[in-house]
Specification:
The complex is a heterodimer of chains A (392) and B (371).
Chain A lengths: L1 H19 L10 E11 L9 E8 L1 H4 L11 E8 L2 H9 L5 E3 L5 E5 H4 L4 H11 L8 E6 L2 H4 L10 H10 L12 H10 L3 E10 L2 E11 L4 E7 H11 L5 E7 L2 E18 L6 E15 L8 H30 L6 H8 L1 H7 L9 H4 L1 E12 L13
Parallel strand pairs in A: 1-4, 1-5, 5-6, 6-7, 12-13
Antiparallel strand pairs in A: 1-2, 2-3, 7-8, 8-9, 10-11, 11-12
Helix pairs in contact in A: 5-8, 9-10, 11-12
Chain B lengths: L12 H12 L3 H12 L5 H24 L6 H9 L1 H33 L6 H17 L2 H26 L16 H16 L5 H5 L9 H27 L1 H4 L5 H8 L11 H30 L5 H17 L4 H39 L1
Helix pairs in contact in B: 1-7, 1-10, 2-8, 2-10, 3-8, 3-10, 3-15, 4-5, 5-6, 5-13, 5-14, 5-15, 6-13, 6-14, 7-10, 7-13, 13-14
The chains are: A alpha/beta (392), B mainly alpha (371).
Amino acid sequence: MKSKKILLICIYAFLSVVLSACWDAIEVEDKGFLSGVAIDLAEEQGENMTFEMTLQFVVPGGLGTATEAGGGKAFRNLSQTGESLYEINADIARQENRSTNTEHLKLILISTDIVEQEELFGNVINVFLRQSDMRRGMLLGIVDGKAKDLLEVEPEHVKIPAQYISELMENPRNTETIEQVRVGEIQEHLLANASFKIPQLAFFSDDRVNYEGVSIFEGDKTKMVGTLTGGEVKGLNFIIGKDQLGNIVADIEGEKAEFVILKGGSKIKLTNKNKENLKFQVDIDVETQLSQYEGTLDFYKQENLEKFEKSIEDAIKKMSEDALKKVKDELQADVLTFGNHLRMHHYELWEEIKDDWDHGKNYFSKSDATFNVEAIVREPGNTIKIQTKGDK
Amino acid sequence: MRTFKYGDEQIRTRDIMIAVPSMLIAIGIIIFPRELADKTIAADGWVSILFGGMIAILAVWLVTKLAASFPNQSFLSYASYLVTKPVAIVITFLFSVQGILLSAFEVRAISDISHQYLFDQTPIEVVALSFLLVVVYAVSGSRAGLFRLNSMFLPIIFLITTLLVFFSIVFINTDHLLPVFKTDAQGYVQGTIESTISFSGVGIGIFFFYISLVKKPEKAPAMAAFGMSWVVGLYIVVYLTCIAVFGENTTANIRFPLIELAKTIEIPGGFFERLDSVFFVIWIMAIFNTTALAFDVSVMALNSIFPKVDKLKIIFVLSPIVFFLAMIPNTYLEIGLFGRYVSYFGWGFVGVILIILWVMFKIKGAKQNEK
């Protein structure tokens, strides 16, 4: 009986060791939460490629609580240079009193210096896709200039620069921006050797970051080949049929009119299947609302309404053609989803040409596209006229 | 010879229906999207799952039908009647070996995955041991209790998986689902083999044993086949979600697609932002079910060969063996290989036994009816 008791005590003692599972316990206070990473090329280059990585840690004390604003800075940036990101990480760990926690990492900024070189982008991204505690939802941004400068930007209303930048990329209400790009999606493109696009940001002032445009990456060499800005991005969005919310300015009989896009979409069709001379037709449908018009046309008349619609159609067509020209002839990287259309709807043809799509024999640049735009003005806005100038 | 020692531990046919998915949903569902995406184009893999599922449903039905033809007889007793006693003992013993191998693999796989995603400092042996001890505790208790545990866990598993799929909707890109039906016949065949193994590699054979606990097993085959169809449904939904979110190329290149899916999800609002921690808890429950059932069948099989030995003694002899086997593989490749062999063994063995027993049943079963 006694020996049984001793045995039981031993078992319980052993179980309390085994079941508590406290090997990995790290108190929240001891964790250094990483909120953003910026990667640049180091200014002094060694024998091998040398990177400079900046990690942004959250300083919880600076954040304050819901009722009480925190004092001081809410972030802390640590930079180091080295030949691999892991090496840099180890260097930074020697300067940080808390253990790095990447689970809440939301933002990765990479400088154009890195991505303009062949293959480097893939190497950098690799780390973020392989680490098991990294999430595939991390947002990517390309920075024109020094990426680490962006992590120093201090807006008045958001305490952490990385949070500000990721929110900036998450909430585009503008035709000149594209949807946020997650690291997971990049793996898709890299695996398929497909071209892709990433938002491009730039330092604007001490409290602001500017969404400059869209970086275009060529899939075969995985390097950045150019940037689309302004109207080109709009054209790109009209062709793809996504992210079309925003305004559009059109010219009606010499007077400017501005429209808000309510709804839009596009449809790609393949009209010529000869692989040396592929021909696409893009049908773009847009519904708009008049937001600003200083001219004198009475848009309650059907014929004038048609004039309005015609002018929007022309404007969209112009932007789409500009975007097509730049992407197809100059950059030669298919970010217009033409290749994706072929994969989805003309699979046999795609299998035949996919290895020479926008590189090699480059069937993409040999292809052509026509645009067929259908625009309607759904609503005229609240008022009919603001000023009276002679009616037509 | 009466081997029916646990006569008071009757279970109902509904418990069998729940035990089928509890047994079959395990490590396989975390890995299979990768292997299937590798063999088929776009979302075509669902066809393979459907075919593989039909084969598995048929297999489950055949197993339970045969066992249900001998109500309240242990596997050893009806197998002895069909293929003579020495052969039946060998088969029973092999079933026990299969159960041990399977539990060892599940123990290893769950410790490995939790090591990768949850605790990277805790030694793998400790994780495996703690998990195994809980399994041992469950198995040493009443067998009916094990089935009750199944029916408690299973709804939670389905609920969380449904939630997972539901919250993935935001991340779905329908472009990934096209084109349809472009896979060639070879791809479909390979995919079907892949999914059949993933379904039934893990021990449909246990139902040779468990049906004997059912008092009125007439309805058991239909119930078991119905339970199996849930698994097929779950696999198809999970597969389509993986493909729609990641695309075929990426799915084929993610080590544990289902876990990555759980990690992709971000529920706005902060509090439930990370669904993967919940998902892990649930998945450990699912694997616990499988391991406990597999281990229990080993014990049951050995117990029917050595009816005089105490059940607890068998458990205490087997658990170190399971632990030892689980610790043999060193690298992820060896674990993968271990899993492959366990599946092949499970599938091949059950297949062969199923055919032999059915043939003998057709010959001898008819004689019995003539009497």
